[in-house]
Amino acid sequence: MNLLSIGASYRTADLAVLERLTIPESSVPELLQHLIAQPYVGEAVVVSTCNRVEVFAAVSGFHGGLGDICNVLSEHSGIPATELASHLYVHYGEAAVRHSFRLSSGLDSMVIGEAQILGQLRDAYHTATEVDSAGRLLHELMQQTLRVGKRAHSETGIDKAGQSVVTAALDVAAEHLGGDLTGKSALVIGAGAMGSLSVATLTRSGVGPLRITNRSQQRADRLAELYGATSVPFDDLDAVLREVDIVVCATASTEPVLTRARLEKLTNSLVVLDLAVPRDVAPDAIGLPGLVVIDIDTLANSRRTGPAAAETAAVEQIVTGEVDSFLGWMRGAEVAPTVAALRTRADEVVSAELRKLMSRRPEFTEEQRGDVSRTLHRVVQQLLHSPTVRVRQLAAEPGGDQYAALLRELFDLDVPLATQANAVPQIGGKP
């Protein structure tokens, strides 16, 4: 098996495509099951955020795995595979490992250094674990990906400004509100993870008074109490929209919450930060007088100030070192089933010779038979110990994949491909 990551993000697709690709949280388990049912896909983890949909997979072949995953994403989104291909990025083998580590470190985010991706990756891994769609290879990749992300954020200044999609959107909003958001009244629609982040960010920025609404009133109440905001019933949305300067939309609704009919009734100017995918603001409402909509496309096209070059370089250095370590683990894992097969072959040879000996020497007592058996097995294991330890060490070094093949050739070992696939991912970039 080898690693393959396929996805679309703000870098490769516009919001209209991301909306069709986005996967509701409730649908992820079913999609994971669909993925691992494909001929070339053995393991899968799905990441779906406001600006990214990505599949991490362990596949038995590059072209077959690519075709299987593209077909599943095409079926899910309704976008023909030939059209979808132009919006996808693909990373294979070593490149997939590097991409995963850069992703968790915030280097591939819309807002460089944002830490929210760590939580999103953790949730994606947790879901895959519950569905049992992650095997040995993806378990190791995701655990190391999360560890590398934590290390990057704790050891460098990549996220010292506390940047996130919300802060970037507020920076753009400030440009439309005189440059200062202090004292501007705001409403957050949605009390999930992005809604909570929005409330926390708005509170720190000095926005207020701040109100929160959600279809589940109880969740809005809890969030409002936590940040000293005001919870308002969802049925009062139209009235509240007329009383605020800023609206942050962060719901999981599959249909627009702010329709054109609803927004046409407003007489006040309004800046809406639509951070939801699919969009909470109806596309046909954009352009209404007095309405400014800042969505994922707006943020992707804006050029926010990122971390200093020294900080990103420090993270890249961490990523490079961790990629080398992970590749060493992969190469070491490759030789493991071959070493096991060698020890099994040695045991089989000893057992066969013992049977021949005992048939020729029936006068041996049970105690004598046991002594001879233990001695022969011990001699063979001692002879194999040093070379097998050394071959594991050599296999973990660059170019070490040749040692497993050499052992198989020298000792005529038959290592099943399925066994190798579970523990022996090949190394290499996209063909």
From TrEMBL:
- Which intervals hold domain Glutamyl-tRNA reductase N-terminal? 6-156
Q: NCBIfam families annotated for this entry? A: hemA, PRK00045.1-3
What family is it from? Belongs to the glutamyl-tRNA reductase family.
- Which HAMAP family does this chain map to? Glu_tRNA_reductase
Sequence ranges assigned to domain Quinate/shikimate 5-dehydrogenase/glutamyl-tRNA reductase in this UniProt record: 174-300
Could you tell me the superkingdom of the organism this chain comes from?
A: Bacteria
Looking at the Swiss-Prot or TrEMBL record, what is one Pfam family this protein matches?
GlutR_N
Q: Where does NADP(+) bind?
A: G190, A191, G192, A193, M194, G195
Entry coiled-coil feature ranges:
none
Misc. comment: During catalysis, the active site Cys acts as a nucleophile attacking the alpha-carbonyl group of tRNA-bound glutamate with the formation of a thioester intermediate between enzyme and glutamate, and the concomitant release of tRNA(Glu). The thioester intermediate is finally reduced by direct hydride transfer from NADPH, to form the product GSA.
EC assignment: 1.2.1.70
Protein name stated in the entry: Glutamyl-tRNA reductase
According to its UniProt entry, this protein's organism is Actinoplanes derwentensis
Q: What is known of its domains?
A: Possesses an unusual extended V-shaped dimeric structure with each monomer consisting of three distinct domains arranged along a curved 'spinal' alpha-helix. The N-terminal catalytic domain specifically recognizes the glutamate moiety of the substrate. The second domain is the NADPH-binding domain, and the third C-terminal domain is responsible for dimerization.
Catalytic residues? Answer: C50 (nucleophile)
Q: Which reaction does it catalyse?
A: (S)-4-amino-5-oxopentanoate + tRNA(Glu) + NADP(+) = L-glutamyl-tRNA(Glu) + NADPH + H(+)
Which keywords does this chain's UniProt record carry? NADP, Oxidoreductase, Porphyrin biosynthesis
Q: Where is this site: Important for activity?
A: H99
EC class of this enzyme? oxidoreductase
Q: In which pathway does it act?
A: Porphyrin-containing compound metabolism; protoporphyrin-IX biosynthesis; 5-aminolevulinate from L-glutamyl-tRNA(Glu): step 1/2
Q: What does this protein do?
A: Catalyzes the NADPH-dependent reduction of glutamyl-tRNA(Glu) to glutamate 1-semialdehyde (GSA).
Q: Tell me the name of the encoding gene.
A: hemA
Question: Which GO terms fall under biological process for this protein?
Answer: protoporphyrinogen IX biosynthetic process from glutamate
